[in-house]
Amino acid sequence: MLTVRVNNTDYQADVTPDTPLLWVLRDVLGLTGTKFGCGIAECGACTVHLDGKAVRACSLPVGLLNGRPVTTIEGIGNDPLAQAVQKAWMDIDVVQCGYCQPGQIMSAIALLRDNPHPTDTDIDAAMSGNICRCGTYLRIRQAIHNAAGLSA
Amino acid sequence: MIVLPLAKRLITTAITGLAVTCLTLAACQPATAASPDHPDPATIARGQYLARLADCEACHTAPGGMPFAGGRPFEIPGMGTLYASNITPDPASGIGAWSDDEFVRAVRAGISPGWKHLYPAMPYQDYARMTPDEIRAIRAYLTTIKPVARKPPANAIRFPFSIRAIMIGWNLFNGPSSSYPDDPSHTPQWNRGRTLVEGPGHCAECHSPRNLTMGTSHSHAYAGAITAGWTAYNLSSDLKSGLGSWSDEALNAYLTTGHANGHGTAAGPMAEVISYSLRFMTQSDRAAMITYLRSLAPQPSAESQDHSAGPTQAALARGASLFAGACSGCHLTTGAGRQIDFATISGASTLKDPDGHNLIQVILEGSQLTTDQGQISMPRFGAGYSDGDLSDIAAYTLLTLGKTRPAFDTNAVSTIKNSK
Amino acid sequence: MNTPATPSRRHFLAGATGLIVAGLLPKRRAFSRPSEFYQGPLVENTDPAFTPNAYIRIAPSTIPGDSGITLILPNVEMGQGIYTGAVTLIAEELNVDPDQVALEAAPPDDAYVAADMGTQATGGSTSTIFEWTTLRQAGAAARLLLTQAAASRWNCPISDCTTRQGRVLHTPSGDSFAYAELATDAATLPVPKTIPLKPAKDWTLIGRSRHRVDSRAKVEGRPLFGIDIRVPDMKHATVAACPVMGGTPGDMDRDAALRTPGVHAVLTIKNAVCVVADHYWAAKKGLEALAITWNEGPNASIDTHRIYSELHAALAEPKPIIAKSKGDAAAAMTRAASRYEATYQQPLLAHAPMEPINCTIHIRPDSADVWVGTQVPMWARDSVADIADLPKDKVRLHCQYIGGGFGRRLEYEYVTQAAQFAKQVPYPLKIVWSREEDLTLDRFRPAYVDRLRAGLNTQGRIESMEFRVVGPAVVARWEPAGLSPNGFDEDLAAAISITPYTFPASRLDYVRREAPGVVTAWWRGVGGTRGLFVVESFIDELALRAGADPVAYRRELIRDQPRARTVLDLAAEKSGWTTPLPKGHGRGVAVQFLFGSYLGTIIEVDMTEPKEVRITRVTVAVDCGQPVNPDQIRAQIEGGMIFGLGTTLFNEITLSKGRVQENNFNLWRIMRMNEAPPIEIHIVQSTEEPGGIGETGTAAAAPALANAIAAASGHRLRTLPLLPALKGA
Ligand code: FES
Ligand code: FES
Fold it and tell me: What's the CATH code of the domain at A111?
């Protein structure tokens, strides 16, 4: 049994330590907001926050968590910055199929936390690890700028 | 399929220089058929430990295949392809029908039953430093492996290399040593370390440059060597490029997990050595190995030849952009591991080598490291990424994260691919 | 070969037309099931509801804040925004606030089979085209019946009643009823024969940008997708099929798999193996432990090179299928002052939607449930019924949101496969493919070779055109009845015979060559995407040969096509086509009529660094008829363009020894944010019937980009993808 702290709750998971956090979240805890896209840290669909930083859950063995707190898309609702980001996303209808978007949003929140007023270049550097197959990049970039304005 | 640098050098040399001396060395004793009795658990455990020290599984397992069932291809440019043998206890396909003595002779002398000389892709000249008893223990362990009734593909070696007896000549010059006695002027720990490094560990096979007959160089022992794009780094105590700058803690961490903060993560062939072998060492053996490595006389590494104008600004800008897309998922844009320390690449020797050998190699081939926490993988890149793209990524990485001026340009990857 | 003046139907599967003709409106259907978005055990809904047709259900709800209104959406939502579009069309006529209604995905049912599609299918940019009238009529019919019900309660003439925001108002008194209060009464009324629709001037929703109905749920990460399904007692599984087509599993170490912690079972079918476990990771480890040896079979010798050489060889085929012809193209060709010819090659392409293939399925002795994202729900359901040996009505298929379709889920072989495994176990099975499996076992957009030949007059203007298309006929496998009697796949005429251009004489012939070792399938833009690349590249070559400006040369060819001219001129104007560019930069143009919509596209590139291409700007002018939701039209063009640009630059599926080589995003490169160019989109106001939009941007990308590269560098690239072609140029 491993203990993982997700969205301020401690959970017990009966998995081997090599199990990536992604599958503990999705299949053991039922937190399916975090998505599976590639399994090799190339797409960002599985992005969650670990100690507030954006990480790829598909490439993070739970055995390496050591009690550090994880936040998923399901657990960000009360954070004002997260709310600003989600609102910015809805204001300009960023989503298409939406599958990549929880990961995009988690990356965006982490970016804005470190850098409240990012330039296009900052955004591109932080967000290019997140693939959107539907091609919503231009709106994502705009929504991040808008969120920076909203939360200022 | 990977190119096994070692085998490449050994075999080409063996044939080019020494074929004449073939067939003069035939004075071995015939095998005595001895059936292995039922070994005790302690012997099996010891055998397993030794098999791990000797890294048998890495070479004798095909990618995605059953452990020890062989079939892993080793492509020897100009010669053909060798396939690792099946060393599971299956009588027909594996080594189940071998006697213990036959096994000992194969491992220590490179001669398998039926008088077939093994190609020295199998480092029997190092394994000869293990005692026959130790090798019998390995055998005992291998009898407990699940037998796999599958013959590896036949070696596809071109004439005249296909004449196995050619190896006899090679053996005369570079061939089997024997377990050497302890050196009383050193501590038992040092002696144990020497045995591990020179014997089952067969470290010199990659980390020492080759002499003229392509045996491992003794005068420049452990100065590091490059083959087929992968650099095995300088293990001598040289302060600049050797282990002189490593702390004992860092070495210990690296040999245990494949990663040491500030030194990067093992990749390519070294990642295999950690995965299948070194991480299983006992703490005292690891300490012994470190003691011996620390005693190696300093050897300067060969200086890199600055042979290109280096990357253009435009190439570096492309590299930065590609890195942010393809690489930052693990390495952030700072070179710090995003989710795991294993992905921290800043400080790695790989990012200090202006030629970028291992950097380009790991981008092209990827790498797999097994740790107690599971598999740590770096995917290989290609297809939609052109050779120029990959060169630019390497140049950017070296300059920005390694603070090292790249001695190569946008054509680096194409050049390497064409040289293979 | 001329364009029909007001094309209202895409020639998608023209041959399949009317195979199963929809029971068009008006139609009454009883719905007994609650939301298809599974949130718990199924409960039978027995409330007598008002269901005037297959798209609307109004429950007699009296709960405050609950409108009781559910809209049933005939097409699946996979990012294209069709739920928002469909809701807009129904709500416009029903007079409800789109935010008041609950949404449901349509189950498999004949009621949702659009004419021309042959089965209930979402694809080919046809949804808005097909739904435009149907859904407005559905809304109007319901509103009419509700108004009648209210009028008889008030005992007043219908003309005293109006409807607004889900209520019927009695104008003289100001009284009102919520629709839900009228549901029971309305359910007893006969559906009217003629249903008048609102005139455009009364629209309050159509034509205005509206927020997507699914934005919030997606932004909050709610469990919408097939891959998110969780049902009681479900186990997780992953599969490996033989990576060489036609191969079968050989030796495997079952014991090792079963020893893997969390693994429950190893299941096999003819060509694949499935490991069942507590969670995906355990299943994946179990699959690795199996260390399967495959019996690869005869396709193990196939490589891509062979596929291309067979296609090129067929250019010499003396007996092609004559697909279309106008005038005497051959004679005109002979008479022409000069002739010009070029050959183009396009690769196999994977779909790689972000959501990997998955299917959750529970087969019991007497019934089955399937939760899956599919573009063809009836076929998927029928296939489960077949495998499970159950009557179709015992298989309940719950359509889920799809995390990107692009044609991949017009296939349902993954559902068939899941059924074959699920049949072997008593519990519900959730099968998720790895990305590697998803790419290796994808069904690919075919590779094609096209040869185009023009007969030209002394000014370099076209007298005659000959097109030869060589490649597979996707429709022949997908729906064999869709193949024309002469063996032509009509879809391949898109952008060739369906085009804004007027040629004095032309001929399209086709040589069918199926690719060995792969299954080929529809892919975003289908025939139009591949056709537009060759035609617009070729026209560009002809323009340059004639020393003409590529826009002016095209304008002349479309002189009798005002809508095409408008988008071409608008794109040229907005992009600053005539303003000079610095050295090493270039602009490329494409004009198209596909999926019922017109696009003019200008792409600008910077090639100052040799053999590198940076896309700096994209300008699109679009006339897709009456816009339903302008913002979503923009979104589709932006996304489709980025999808197309990335594919055009980077992507090609290659086979070596029968195996697909590109199996994850390290090898299947996707355009990323820092490579995506700015895209500006100009929508032409139009009152024509709406056209499709989801695939138009993708089709425009390849030719406009290749033309821009030619303008900037002088390299005419006739082989896709462009990046390797450029490096080798
Ligand atoms: S699933 Fe983790 S990055 Fe793609
Ligand atoms: S919205 Fe579909 S993948 Fe991003």
Answer: 1.10.150.120
